[in-house]
Design brief:
heterodimer, A: 248 residues, alpha/beta, Rossmann fold, six-stranded mixed β-sheet, three-stranded antiparallel β-sheet, 9 helices, 28% strand, globular, disordered N terminus, B: 265 residues, mainly alpha
């Protein structure tokens, strides 16, 4: 039974939730904590994600829709294992990568070092990185700047590098947050081309986007969220309809 | 059972490769961004040795035989501990880019940092050995007892990892732990038998060689490398116990506080 679950699903979440405790004046030092021992700061509870359950199959491309502040980013961070869950059960089968405009790279390192570290974190062996290294650099259009520290890069260059690493190295489960906004038009076209080629086949993709066309094009199923709750999981068309209605 | 799990872990994943890769890059960042390179790692203990030699041997005439070797081994072990811990207090903040976008296991970040410190340490140990063999008067070199240095150094490694875990996770809820730890280590330096004759140290501060885990480790390192004798077994086992308990506390904190690093920092 458990094995079947392992083989079929990339992510299984049961009754997960997340509440942030926000303090007005943060006591972030030992000194402040000692001086305010009997005067604990007022805590405000913000229930960002109410109890939700969902299952994402391996190899599926699922959309995530909802207005700003509805808890999309929090859900993505929980499902990718970046944030711990407060309640419930969460099983993630494989490496995850969360991708938005700034992907995890150190500005103190060169592009070469970042490529090796990121790809290794995503589960590749060194010789596998060697094999795709040129491909990554070429796709990011950064050939002359491979050994430059990325703190000297423009934000567009950093984003392209991040996108290129993700596309070429890729984790088992990819969370793509508005990625089609990366780079100039030429690069966007390239990105879309990759997306339309065989790249997403065999990968589990959770696609966060405000663009209905993107969701409609790539996803069969979609999740619609409102006020920290999942109101609908299923047919993408239906989810888009609900989202459009919510915007009016 | 345990061997199978470890074998499985190493065989199936690229974790060891990754640790080495990250350690190498960390090491390069620290030492090769300047022209002196690896010599930087040596400059600190050498300049310390000169200062303390003048103070304790030339002026105060403590009369410790082979004082330079005595200082050298004590200082490189102490510096390894301090660099491994002060360098990692803010590690969850500085290395956020590694775990913020993936479900990478945070313990790897610590291990790679400490591994990169090991490269510097072994370079210094190598220089110490050269000094000990070539320049130290009345030195008869290492004996077979020197092999005991391996578990003693591992003990130091575990203690350094444990403190790194504890401090960096406290950092999440109390940022000023960085400054507090700097004070603690500078006091700890004077409460360790780095500069003093062991008998004088034990007489003046009885029991401290047990309370301060670094004291026992330095005492035993000298026993096996300089004095060709067995380690003080009481201290040896006590410090291993110390290290394991602290490591468990550190892992517990990583689990409790560290898992929230992405949202709190």
């Amino acid at each position: 039974m458990i094995n079947m679950e392992n083989n079929e699903f990339a992510i299984v979440a049961k009754n997960i939730s997340k509440t942030f405790h926000i303090t007005e004046d943060s006591h972030n030092t030992v000194k402040q904590r000692l001086f305010n021992l009997f005067n604990s700061p007022k805590k405000k509870k913000v229930e960002v994600l109410k109890t939700v359950s969902l299952e994402i199959k391996k190899g599926e491309c699922i959309g995530l829709l909802g207005r700003n502040g509805c808890g999309k980013s929090t859900l993505v961070k929980l499902l990718s294992g970046v944030y711990p869950i407060d309640t419930g059960y969460l099983k993630i089968n494989g490496s995850t990568m969360l991708m938005n405009l700034g992907v995890g790279m150190s500005h103190a390192l060169t592009a070469r070092e970042n490529i090796y570290i990121s790809a290794s974190v995503l589960g590749l062996r060194i010789r596998e990185v060697d094999a795709i290294f040129d491909q990554i650099v070429e796709f990011a259009e950064l050939k002359e700047f491979v050994d430059t520290k990325i703190k000297y890069y423009s934000s567009g260059m950093v984003a392209r590098l991040g996108f290129s690493i993700a596309v070429n190295a890729g984790a088992d489960i990819m969370f793509l947050d508005e990625i089609f906004a990366v780079g100039d038009m030429k690069f966007q076209e390239k990105a879309i081309k990759v997306f339309e080629s065989s790249w997403i086949e065999g990968k589990t993709v959770i696609l966060v986007s405000h663009s209905m066309d993107v969701i409609k094009k790539y996803c069969n199923r979609a999740i619609f969220m409102k006020n920290g709750e999942i109101l609908f999981i299923g047919d993408a068309e239906k989810a888009i309809e609900m989202y459009t209605e919510d915007n009016h | 059972m345990l061997i199978r799990i470890v074998k499985d872990w190493i065989g199936r994943s690229n974790k060891l490769e990754r640790l080495w890769l990250m350690a190498k890059i960390e090491f390069k960042l620290r030492y090769y961004e300047n022209k002196l390179g690896l010599l930087w790692a040596l400059i600190k203990p050498v300049s310390d040795i000169i200062i303390y030699y003048v103070a304790f041997e030339v002026i105060m005439k403590q009369g410790i035989p082979n004082f330079i070797s005595f200082l050298f081994i004590g200082l490189i072990m102490w510096n390894f501990f301090v660099e491994s811990t002060t360098g990692t207090v803010q590690i969850l903040n500085t290395k956020k880019y590694l775990y913020e976008y993936t479900n990478m296991n945070k313990i790897e970040i610590y291990l790679s940092h400490i591994l990169s410190n090991c490269i510097g340490f072994f370079f210094n140990l190598f220089m110490f050995s050269i000094f000990f063999y070539l320049f130290e008067k009345n030195s008869s070199g290492y004996s077979l007892h020197a092999f005991y240095f391996i578990p003693i150094f591992l003990n130091l490694l575990v203690i350094a990892l444990a403190f790194s875990l504890i401090l960096s996770n406290i950092y999440i809820i109390a940022n000023d732990i960085t400054q507090i730890w700097m004070v603690v280590t500078s006091i700890g330096f004077w409460l360790s038998p780095i500069l003093f004759k062991l008998e004088v140290f034990r007489q003046a501060l009885p029991g401290l060689d047990y309370i301060n885990p670094l004291a026992g480790i330095i005492i035993n390192a000298r026993n096996v490398l300089l004095y060709q004798s067995e380690p003080d077994w009481g201290l040896f086992f006590f410090d291993w116990g110390y290290a394991i308990v602290l490591l468990l506390v550190g892992l517990l904190l990583l689990n409790k506080l560290g898992s929230k690093a992405a949202e709190k920092l």
